[in-house]
Design goal:
Distance between the termini: 22 Å
CATH architecture of the largest domain: Alpha-Beta Complex
CATH topology of the largest domain: Adenine-n6-DNA-methyltransferase TaqI, Chain A, domain 2
Oligomer: single chain
CATH superfamily of the largest domain: DNA methylase specificity domains
CATH class of the largest domain: Alpha Beta
Largest sheet: 4 strands, antiparallel
Number of domains: 3
Radius of gyration: 25 Å
Number of strands: 22
Length: 388
């Protein structure tokens, strides 16, 4: 039976606030202000491996992370230097993930956590050996997720560069003939049209929230912009909650096919994801069902056009890209052989990205299932070490 001991966090660590942002911006060290990276600096004040607690900041107070590299912390964060003879920093990081520390609010006008708050925090820890073995299990999952993220990021950079090369700079076609258009010179045979010519623009709707029977955990996939605010996935199967057939029939939302490009048109404008399966959305989307062009062309066209859409959007409370705006968005329309060639080039990239995202999602679910059981002692680390 593993023996657990209780400590005050202040007894097994030293803590210090970050400092005001450095005057000299630019360098090899990322500058973290709260939970956001706001630039780089040529000086650092937080070594790699330090546990960092966000002291204050909208939406981020109480968040905990481990510095993955030497960095500079501003005064919105607290660096917690743990005595590693008692505690593995990653173990405490994982433990914090289970218990949101936002309740440590000191009661000031702006929600915040102080060093005194953290020093008083009582924590229970098993032996250092047990901590290290637990971290090895959980971190192996996180490390694989991070490897997948980096691969996908690299693939995404390649894909965006290819779209720009083909449809912005026209590099593969520069030896051919060009003609004038309202968007400048374009390859002969191409034309300028509207987005509605390459795909069907589809809005969404929300069933009445007063009807609980319109919502379910396992029904028709339904998406809101809020769902995408907590997901960086390029491919999406469903939102946090599904709707029932009755809910679907009660409103004007429309089920769209796999491969539809889902584009949030308000609050905020510009979340983009690709449907992994049939899905519908709320009114915060103007999605594009591929017709003349394929998924990849439409996806990157919207990526490159987001700023233009934001500038043209209207609204008093918040800006919204209307259906009329999206339908009439000027779009370069290449000849069909070029569109087909681009989709063929993108297909293995998209397939690889979707596979890695699915794997990372399964690994994250496994980690989140193991985490509370390992931290509570319900599940012994030796019971899963060999399996993993």
């Amino acid at each position: 039976m593993e023996e657990w001991r209780e400590y005050r966090l202040g007894d097994i660590s030293t803590m210090k606030y970050g400092k005001l942002p450095p005057k000299s911006i630019g360098g090899k060290y990322p500058v973290w202000s709260g939970y956001r990276c706001v630039g780089t600096s040529d000086v650092m004040n937080c070594p790699k491996g330090t546990m960092v607690v966000v002291a204050r900041g909208v939406g981020g107070t109480g968040d905990v992370k481990i510095a993955k590299e030497n960095c500079y912390l501003t005064n919105l964060s607290i660096a917690v230097n743990l005595d590693t003879t008692f505690c593995n920093p990653y173990y405490l990081y994982y433990k914090y993930l289970l218990k949101n520390q936002k309740y440590l609010d000191s009661g000031s006008a702006q929600s915040q956590i102080t060093i005194d708050d953290l020093k008083r925090l009582q924590i229970q820890l098993p032996s250092l050996d047990y901590q290290n073995r637990t971290v090895a299990v959980l971190k192996s999952l996180d490390d694989k997720i991070e490897v997948n993220r980096r691969i996908n990021e690299n693939l995404e950079q390649q894909a965006q560069a290819l779209f720009k090369s083909w449809f912005v700079d026209f590099e593969p076609f520069k030896n051919g003939e060009f003609v004038e258009s309202e968007l400048g010179m374009i390859p002969k045979g191409w034309r300028v049209g509207e987005l509605s010519e390459v795909g069907e623009i589809v809005g969404g709707s929300t069933p009445s929230k007063a009807r609980l029977d319109y919502y379910t955990n396992n029904g028709i996939a339904w998406l809101t912009p809020k769902d995408l605010s907590v997901s960086n996935c390029k491919f999406t199967a469903k939102g946090e909650i599904d709707i029932t057939q009755e809910g679907y029939n009660s409103c004007s939302t429309k089920l769209m096919p796999k491969g539809t490009v889902l584009f949030s048109s308000r609050a905020p404008i510009g979340y983009i994801t690709i449907a992994k399966n049939e899905i519908c959305t709320n009114q915060g989307f103007k999605s594009v069902v591929p017709q003349l062009a394929g998924t990849a062309f439409i996806y990157y066209f919207l990526k490159f056009s987001t700023k233009e859409i934001e500038n043209k959007a209207t609204g008093s409370t918040f800006k919204e890209a209307s259906g009329a705006l999206m339908k009439s968005l000027p779009t370069i329309i290449p000849i069909s052989s070029v569109l087909d060639g681009f989709e063929e080039l993108m297909e293995p990239i998209f397939r690889k990205q979707e596979t890695l995202e699915s794997e990372s999602r399964r690994l994250a679910q496994l980690r989140d299932t193991l985490l509370p059981r390992l931290m509570s002692g319900e599940l012994k680390v030796n019971e899963i070490e060999n399996v993993l």
